[in-house]
Amino acid sequence: MLFTVLGEFALVAERTAWTSALIEVLGQLGVDEKATRQALMRTAADGWLRAERIGRRTLWHLTPNAERLLTDGAQRIYSFTGPAQGWDGTWLLVSVRVPESDRRARHLLRTRLSWAGFGSLGAGLWISTHPEREAEVAEVLREARIADDAHVFIATRPGIGDVRAMVQQAWDLVAVEEQYEDFIAEFSDPARKNALIDQIELVHAWRRFPAIDPALPRELLPSRWSGVKAATLFGQQHTAWAPAARTAWEALNPPRT
């Protein structure tokens, strides 16, 4: 939630936030002050924030690493619109075996490849309908230190086997559809009461979809699919609530004097 607030507001403004502003905003989201302060200290210890003392107050600055992380995340979150368009039938395949003992590499591979739209067919085989993400995959493999044991292919299917059965095995699209329905039900009301909190909750809820929805082409999706409707709703509400949310954030987070 802290990263959602920083990415939605601090990143596009002064790249700073007062402790008091974050305590107030996260408090309205149900996070107590102690937990917020602990989150700030952990985030700073991890190299994402830098503290500046100004009198008795603390101003938090995004570090360059945080700016890159939040910028990349914002690009993926705000540009995500659901099904891929104009797919030519090309697949990106990754074959890699990671030792059970290397938990870091396994976690990194699973989370980063899922974020990139990959599904798993088991036995170290990952598939995606996004061959343009080959460079992203190579970076993940290098970061996990398993590039030397991996093989990456650009491939097409010859028509043997049921492609929909393969898709069903690689991705739990039923669960994704259920989450889209929940999102639509939660955020369809155009006149919620607190633009700042509504905006944060909207973005925080939406940011999970690029990680769980592989953005498959429409021909591979179930006949019932609410992803497009949900993406349209996100764009409409985000645009509608942004001015009032920004004004409320600036009131809590004025420039230093």
Q: How would you portray this structure in words?
A:
The chain contains eleven helices and seven strands. The chain has a four-stranded antiparallel β-sheet. The two termini are 28 Å apart. The model has no long low-confidence stretch (mean pLDDT 91).
Query: What is the CA–CA distance across the termini?
Result: 28 Å
Q: How many helices in DSSP terms?
A: 11
Mean residue pLDDT: 91
Physical arrangement of strands within the biggest beta sheet? 5-6-4-7
Tell me, what's the shape?
globular
Largest sheet: 4 strands, antiparallel
Indicate the radius of gyration in whole angstroms. 21 Å
Q: What structural class should be given to the helix and strand makeup? A: alpha+beta
Helix-residue proportion: 40-55%
- What's the SSE pattern? HEHHEEHEHEEHEHHHHH
Stretches where pLDDT is under 50 for at least 5 consecutive residues are none
Determine the strand fraction and express it as a percent band. 5-15%
Number of strands: 7
